[in-house]
Amino acid sequence: GVGFINGSNLKTHRRKYLGEKPYKYDACGLGFHHNDNLRVHRSTHTSEKHYKCDAYGA
């Protein structure tokens, strides 16, 4: 099997393969294995743009 340095990574790995998505976004109903993925997804529903390309008029 796959080995992990810490228990948190093992927990996320198990969630992925068991289909568990405990981090839900109520606005659209999507669920995620990891809270960081929820945070990134949440920003797609808002006008938050943390990174901007200044080249090419973007």
Structure characterization notes:
This protein has one domain (1-45): Classic Zinc Finger (Double Stranded RNA Binding Domain, 2-Layer Sandwich). It is 34% helix and 7% strand. The chain is built from 2 helices and 2 strands. It has helices spanning 7-18, 35-42, and strands at 23-24, 31-32. The chain has a two-stranded antiparallel sheet. The radius of gyration is 16 Å and the shape is flat. The model has no long low-confidence stretch (mean pLDDT 87). GO terms for molecular function: DNA binding; DNA-binding transcription factor activity, RNA polymerase II-specific; zinc ion binding.
Topology diagram in text:
Elements lengths: L6 H12 L4 E2 L6 E2 L2 H8 L16
Antiparallel strand pairs: 1-2
The CATH superfamily turns out to be: Classic Zinc Finger
Tally of discrete structural domains: 1
Cα-atom radius of gyration: 16 Å
- From the N-terminal CA to the C-terminal CA, the straight-line distance is 45 Å
Enumerate the strands of the largest sheet in spatial order, edge to edge or round the barrel: 1-2
CATH topology: Double Stranded RNA Binding Domain
Number of strands: 2
Q: Per CATH, which architecture?
A: 2-Layer Sandwich
Strand content: 5-15%
Extract low-pLDDT stretches.
Answer: none
- Specify the biggest β-sheet: 2 strands, antiparallel
GO molecular function: DNA binding; DNA-binding transcription factor activity, RNA polymerase II-specific; zinc ion binding
Keywords: Metal-binding, Nucleus, Repeat, Transcription, Transcription regulation, Zinc, Zinc-finger
Organism: Arion vulgaris
GO cellular component, one term: nucleus
